[in-house]
Amino acid sequence: MVFATPRIIVALILREIGTSYGRSPGGYIWALAEPVLGIALLTAIFSIGFRMPPLGNNFPIFYATGLLPFLMFVDLSNKVAQAINYSKQLLAYPRVTFVDAILGRFILNFLTQLLVGFIVLSGIIFLFDTRAAINASDIVSALTMIAALSLGVGVFNCFMMSMFQVWQRVYGICTRPLLLLSGVIFLYETIPEPYRSYLWFNPLIHVVGGVRSGFYHNYDVPYVSSAYVYAVAAILGLFGLVLLRRYHRDILER
Questions:
Q1: Would you list the domain boundaries of the chain?
Q2: Is the C-alpha dihedral spanning 207, 145, 108, 100 positive or negative?
Q3: 79 FRET partner, CA 20 to 30 A, in 35, 48, 111, 224?
Q4: What integer best gives the mean pLDDT of the chain?
């Protein structure tokens, strides 16, 4: 019985591979094509109006280090948020818990996003003279922040979206400007006060800054606070878990 939960999580992961990615090659291709097309579009637009990116000398690597962590957060948090709805039929079995469903979706999609990011960034570094100076410790630290934040936000939204259908629309509307407010297409330091201080409270600013510091050795990011990101992730995640534990039976009966 000790190994019941790991076996269930693995089974849920294999199920999602078959349903989300394995039905056709297009599932995996789109996971890679989405960030590639996004980076290409940003590069094409901003290279027309600017001779150099805000940091470094290469547009693709600059926008890749902003867009990839942003897309990773969006994909992971959304997948975790739909974990109960996605596995509702399986949750009728006593041995399958909502925690299994959440962890199964999170682990698979986190590994998928890691692979996508590795392929895209490796391709850019191979094709262009990016002069990137990779700092593995900074990148791992930033990835850990992304994982924690995505899980925390996803767990909270898992309760909200499962309990209140309107929350999915409300959350989508409220987070639509995040691409412009998370440092993907600009540097945090270039924002004038008092708006810079307001943006500091967006945890994605810290995540994107942390990733970029891992590719630009001369980019100092004193504003990045991993403690703040982990605090936001922990508060939302724990609150979501408490609510799911209390109301998950009601959600399954809806």
A1: 4-252
A2: negative
A3: 224
A4: 87
CA distances for 218 relative to 56, 109, 131, 142, 143, angstroms: 9, 32, 12, 17, 20
For the CA atoms of 152, 198, 113, 108, what is the dihedral angle to 10 degrees?
10
pLDDT at 1 > cutoff 50: no
CB-count burial class (<10 Å; 0-12, 13-18, 19+) for 213 = buried
Residues near 164 by beta carbon (within 8 Å), at least 6 away in sequence:
none
Bond into 194 cis (ω within 30): yes
Distance CA 67, CA 71 (A): 6
* End-to-end CA gap in the chain: 30
Q: CA-CA distance, 73 to 157, in Å (whole number)? A: 13
Supply 28's token pair: 């995996």
Write the single-letter amino acid at 146: I
Enter the tokens of residue 227. Answer: 């403690």
What is this structure's pTM?
Answer: 0.90
Cα–Cα distance measured from residue 103 to residue 80, given in angstroms and rounded to the nearest whole number: 8
